[in-house]
Design brief:
This protein is of the alpha+beta class and about 425 residues long. The protein has 11 helices and 14 strands.
Length: about 425
């Protein structure tokens, strides 16, 4: 059996981490505490080592303030025991519950996750690829479904509570804010609103009754953030953000990122419907919709793609006919012969949108790969093919049908 007192790692045992943030205890039973992994509202999480089973673990110590509330502690431990029964590949597993020797505060030993939470990832790399977003949301939905089978609601679904491991696996963490479904889900007058304002459902934000559809709303807000790189609503105060969740409509994701399929936007909008009855009613329904979209999306290169909403004409030359689906083919006409006369006096700045002297708006499109043409093989249209632009360019927002475009090419302006 391994000796927790040693600082030398035996063969096959992970190398100890440098203790840059010394934990309050060197050992808790069979568990050796090492460096600090992170802090949160409920306490601190340390890297640890299970000397009995010889594996890395994460050890969560609840804060001193929480530790003084015995009623909360009992409820928390009850929920943690229930969460420990959730055995699913997308759920961070709970291994052990214990009490600290000094103040009797509880601690939790959990699965050690080598990876990055999605809040950190989006800050570093920006919006995630669409296919990756779909896999993350499906994995999270499966985790929440497994929890719901054990009568557990998460109640704080957000990017920072979703981990992406180094091998790409998705893990949902921190069911510590969950409530047993057998208890009343309605918050009492003395309770507090549970959840994070940027992702909280309207009913949870108002302290009303809620169910799994509230977690689906929060997952939709998370989906929005991963896809666009920004939260659905922001404001100067948490109350202003809560108010937006109750009353406002978030910006269309398609207006924030080129190439988002309308079907994907529709899924997010349904997940984030103000009324719970208008959302997906269970996780099976949600996962089915995501699977159908993923099947279509897998056929498309996950780089900026010209779609029926984003197809436009490069300002310096006439594009070939392009179609990305649907009856109406949207083309942006920059009036390339006349554009120089309408540019801003000082010239547009690369990387920025601009409006010319006659009110036409031009969007800056950065360099990248685009899909052009059509898969259907329609007469007069080129087959679908990939083109690469090494430099950025401006596209007009003007939208016309293919018939109108042909008329314009003939000089018969509509």
């Amino acid at each position: 059996m391994a000796n927790c007192d040693t600082v030398t790692a035996p063969a096959g045992r992970p190398t100890p981490v440098k203790k840059t943030n010394k934990p309050p205890f060197d050992k808790l039973g069979n568990f050796e505490l090492r460096g600090l992994l992170g802090k949160g509202g409920m306490g601190e999480v340390y890297e640890g080592f299970d000397c009995e089973l010889e594996r890395q673990v994460a050890i969560k110590l609840l804060s001193a303030a929480i530790a003084q509330d015995e009623e909360f502690i009992e409820k928390f431990l009850s929920e943690a025991r229930l969460a420990a029964q959730i055995d699913h590949e997308n759920v961070c597993r709970v291994y052990h519950l214990g009490r600290l020797p000094k103040n009797n505060a509880p601690y939790i030993v959990m699965e050690y996750l080598a990876g990055q939470n999605l809040s950190q990832k989006v800050k570093e790399v920006g919006p995630l690829p669409i296919n990756q977003c779909l896999e993350v949301i499906k994995g999270t939905a499966r985790a929440l479904a497994a929890a719901y089978e054990k009568k557990v609601l998460h109640r704080d679904v957000k990017p920072s509570n979703i981990m992406m491991l180094d091998d790409g696996t998705v893990k949902v963490t921190d069911f510590g804010l969950a409530r047993l479904l057998k208890e009343s889900a309605k918050l009492s007058a003395t309770d507090h609103i549970v959840g994070t304002p940027h992702y909280i459902s309207p009913e949870a934000g108002q302290g009303k009754s809620f169910d799994l559809r509230s977690d689906i709303y929060s997952l939709g807000a998370t989906f929005y953030h991963l896809l666009t790189g920004r939260v659905p609503f922001d404001g100067p105060t948490p109350l202003s953000v809560l108010n937006s969740h109750v009353h406002d409509t978030p910006p269309d994701p398609c207006s924030l990122r080129v190439g988002i399929p309308r079907a994907l936007t529709a899924i997010i909008q349904k997940m984030m419907a103000k009324e719970a009855d208008l959302r997906f009613q269970d996780y099976d329904e949600l996962i089915e919709a995501l699977d159908e979209l993923a099947a279509l999306q897998s056929e498309v290169d996950d780089t900026p793609t010209v779609t029926a909403q984003t197809v436009r004409l490069k300002k310096t030359s006439a594009f070939p006919y392009v179609k990305a689906g649907g009856i109406a083919l949207l083309l942006a006409i920059s009036l390339w012969l006349a554009v120089p006369a309408f540019l801003p006096i000082n010239g547009p700045q690369k990387g920025q949108d601009f409006v010319n002297s006659i009110g036409q708006k031009f969007i800056w499109i950065g360099p990248g790969k685009f899909l052009m043409g059509t898969k259907e093989g329609n007469k007069g249209e080129a087959p679908q093919h990939e083109v690469t632009f090494a430099e950025g360019f401006w596209l007009s927002e003007t939208e016309v049908t293919q018939a109108q475009w042909k008329a314009i090419r003939k000089g018969d302006l509509p």
